[in-house]
Amino acid sequence: MSEEDSKQWFPYELSKPVKQISPIVLAYIGDAIYEVAVRQYLLSLPNLRPNHLHRSATGLVSAKAQCAILQFLDPSLTEEEREVARQGRNAKSGTVPKNADVLEYRHATAFECLIGYLYYTGQQERIKELVHNGIEFMKGR
């Protein structure tokens, strides 16, 4: 197993260097990583009824929520992280958002792209920090 593999959850290498991966593809994995983080957070709470879990998860993973989280986190992002998010925001996904306006959807894609980038560059602690801060922010709203 290479050093790069050990940074990921599973031993599947990227097909090319992370800087050459499309922002939409990074958002694809970032969406999944963030979803797992939110679910793990929700399972740490006392109310584990499936309907409650689903409603709570939706409140944190919706495009509207991810847009708000990214705006909240922006001052704490590094220049590199802002650039990755900008690329995600400007990427053309080819899909039409169903439950969000286009601007929210693009910012949500930017957030997911950032999470995907951090995942594939082995910055697990940074993901934990940003996700935790985002969840805490949303709890206070």
The CATH top-level class label: Mainly Alpha
Distance between the termini: 43 Å
Q: Report the CATH architecture.
A: Orthogonal Bundle
**Amount of helix:** 55-70%
The count of DSSP E runs of length 2 or more, i.e. the number of strands, is 0
Name the helix and strand elements from N-terminus to C-terminus, one letter apiece.
Answer: HHHHHH
Can you tell me the residue ranges where pLDDT is under 50 for at least 5 consecutive residues? 1-5
Total DSSP helices: 6
Structural class: mainly alpha
How is the biggest beta sheet arranged?
Answer: none
Radius of gyration: 15 Å
Determine the CATH topology. Answer: Ribonuclease iii, N-terminal Endonuclease Domain, Chain A
Shape: globular
**Beta fraction:** under 5%
Number of domains: 1
> By CATH's scheme, which homologous superfamily applies?
Ribonuclease III domain
Mean pLDDT: 91
Write a structural description:
The chain has a single domain, classed as Ribonuclease III domain (Ribonuclease iii, N-terminal Endonuclease Domain, Chain A, Orthogonal Bundle), CATH 1.10.1520. It is built from 6 helices and no strands. It has helices at 23-43, 50-61, 63-73, 79-90, 102-120, 124-139. Helix 3 crosses helix 6 (124-139). The longest helix is centred in the N-terminal third of the chain and has 21 residues, at 23-43. The termini are far apart.
Main attributes?
single chain, mainly alpha, Ribonuclease iii, N-terminal Endonuclease Domain, Chain A, 6 helices, disordered N terminus
